[in-house]
Design brief:
With 121 residues, the chain is mostly helical. It has a single domain, classed as c-terminal domain of poly(a) binding protein. The chain is 73% helix and 0% strand. The chain contains five helices and no strands. The longest helix is centred in the middle third of the chain and has 39 residues. The radius of gyration is 26 Å and the shape is rod-shaped. It starts with 6 loop residues before the first helix and ends in a 5-residue tail after the last helix.
Length: 121
């Protein structure tokens, strides 16, 4: 049976890891053992932060909607309750964008939300 030399595949694997570590500092960018650990950890951070990014954007949209709604004399929670009561299904990303780019359209939504709220609250 012929002898198998695996230098080619090892070199390719190392090259892939070192390319991914190209922006790192110190030994982490050019020593395979340190680079592999650093790249693995960086992939964990990337996965975690893709989830957190969605969370952060939702929080930003809610803050923007709250600020815009308070100019019309409502709070965010009352506004959302009014929209649900009026049967208007618009997500927070679109509401935030409307509040910034089309204040007149947003004001119309606020009025509809106010109309569907109970008068005593």
């Amino acid at each position: 049976m012929a002898r198998v030399k695996r230098g080619v595949t090892s070199h390719a694997k190392h090259k892939k890891v070192l390319k991914a570590a190209s922006g790192f500092r110190g030994r982490r960018k050019n020593t395979i053992r340190a680079a592999k650990a650093a790249v693995d950890k960086s992939m964990q951070y990337a996965t975690r932060d893709r989830r957190n990014k969605k969370r952060n954007f939702r929080a930003l949209w809610i803050q923007r909607i709250n600020a815009a709604v308070r100019e019309h004399g409502l709070t965010y929670s009352r506004f959302i309750a009014g929209l649900i009561g009026a049967g208007i299904a618009v997500d927070r990303k679109v509401l935030s964008d409307l509040a910034i780019t089309a204040p007149d359209g947003f004001a119309a939504l606020v009025e509809k939300a106010k109309g569907s709220l109970p008068a005593n609250a």
